[in-house]
Design goal:
Shape: globular
Radius of gyration: 12 Å
Structural class: alpha+beta
Number of domains: 1
Strand order of the largest sheet: 1-2-3
Oligomer: single chain
Largest sheet: 3 strands, antiparallel
Amino acid sequence: MDRHDDKPAAPSETPANLHAKDLFYLETWAWEKGVCEVEYDEYLGIFRFYEDGRFAFSREFADWRLLKERRYIDF
């Protein structure tokens, strides 16, 4: 896939108190409990949005701009 809008947000857009790995571990727990709000792609080890399959976050990176835009996070 060669789309520029699927690239993770720049590090400067990262919320100061949240890291991608923290979000990843929280949602992995929620996914195991069946209450996750995003889809887990086991093959790639990333979370995607259900609506369109776009990258949301992985253990190392998060698209903070898109997460905020879609009201997944609110800060």
